[in-house]
Amino acid sequence: MKTTYFTAGRGLAAGVAMLTASCNEPEQATAPQPQAYAADAGLVCTQQPEGTSYTIYPQCADGTAIGDVMPYYDSATNTTYSYFLKDIWNDATNQRHPWYAFKTTNFYSYSALSTGEQLSCASATCAQDFAVGTGSVTKKGSAYYAYYTGFNPNSANCTNRKEGVMLATATALNQPFVKNTSFGTLYAPTGQGFDETDNFRDPYVYFDDASATYYLLVAARQNVAGTWRGVVAKYTSTDLTTWTYQGRLYDGGSTNFFMLECPQLFKIGDTYYLLFADINSKNCYYRKSTSLAGPWSVPNGTARFDGNGFYAPKLITDQYGDRYLQAWVPRRAGSTDTGALQWGGNLITHKLYQLANKDLAVTIPHTLKSYLQAQPQAIVKNSQWGNVTNTGGGTQSYRLISTANNDVANVLYDPINLTRFKISTTVSYSSAAKDFGFLLGACDGYNQFYSLRFVPGQNRFSFDLTNRSNLTTTTVATADVPFPLQPNTNYTVEIVEENSVVVVYLNNVAALTARIYKAPKTSWGVFVDNSTATFSNILVTKPS
């Protein structure tokens, strides 16, 4: 095992110590701009070329990104069909976000449907579905109903309705959907205060067994008591073709969301859940109720279980009663961590379950976990710095102690030269005046690295591009997730990487999904800053 104790560059650390004595294609915020640095001896921090082999977090085979996943579970074959919008806009071929699909039985191996394009765009300039958008798939009898958004950017010169809800059907899975031209497109209700020219999209169909009624949810904007708000409009039907407007299902409550994109309704036990994506923060939130009529309340604990890298999730339930959420993690312009977030990326799947207090939690799908831990991968310790004690002879287990801000103690490892793998450990802390966690893309072990960090003072887990010397209590995270923390408590951590996609699972209750171009094949490790924490049994595993 390579074990060299880090000494290079600590003069720079002294200088650092002296300095311290946040569905459609919404506008995206610019990421923090980390500086480029030369690595200290033995460390690799230069971004490696972006990989193209994605199997557990798929994109299209031609490298095209996917977005707004619309999963459907087929119990007859135990197969999940993951419909999605393919990120292509080509007027010459009449391809403007057409539907394509993957299928999987295990959430670690996906294949594209052999029939290719599943829902096509219209060619007529003024057709409502000149472009197609998000929707949902449901089955009635032997037919599959795909409700989708018809999107026409030319609407000002045509119907003056940019978005409407449309219908297509198929008689079998793996068959393209055929548009139902006799179905009257649903537009925002007139005279009800809605935005009648735009913002009426993302239809989702839910069947309520108790009333034998179909509910259609649509993301919209409405003037509610003099204030424009994002709302979820509600329709009902008994036959999936004739729909009656039934008012609002939800208007955001105490929070005024611009749009509650890609809403979904589902029930676990006696509790209904409403899931939606905030177009501004890019975070997914949920509400719960004991009745379809509401009221809809925030959870007892945290109102979300992932960050802004898990957008527009949708749920399926398999024949065993297991529930899975599928969403997408965005790319960045130029395939660099400093690039602006872009629409579309890779498909991500979490397993979802209900806690005892009826809040929701997520964890790694058990099939994916088994796949990723088929065999161990040797890890090589590069160095350590500060008050570091090995707490488990023969294992990568360490207690790290730091007693002042920016007096970073660390253990650093050589790059993991694999396309996909899983890091696992158990973390606990006894004190935390600042933070502790994992470092990625390390140019050194005390300042110039990306951090995946626990922040007990703010009860959150955060991904930050910002260097340590510029990190403050008010720094806006690149991505974060609420995560209540208590000292002297063990927390399991599983970090899954496939090329630039990084997913962190926290104690089987929360996750943080992120795009980190600098993560693959660079130096990494664990650290504490003005904290005392223990990282037990750090392991890396990989598929067979």
TrEMBL record:
PROSITE patterns registered for this protein in UniProt: PROKAR_LIPOPROTEIN
Gene Ontology molecular-function annotations: hydrolase activity
Domain Glycosyl hydrolase family 32 N-terminal: 78-334
Origin: domain of life: Bacteria
Domain BT1760-like C-terminal: 384-538
Enzyme class (EC, first level): hydrolase
Keywords in alphabetical order: Glycosidase, Hydrolase
Family matches, as CDD domains: GH32_EcAec43-like (cd08995)
EC number(s) given by UniProt: 3.2.1.26
Coiled coil segments of this chain: none
Protein family membership: Belongs to the glycosyl hydrolase 32 family.
Protein name: beta-fructofuranosidase
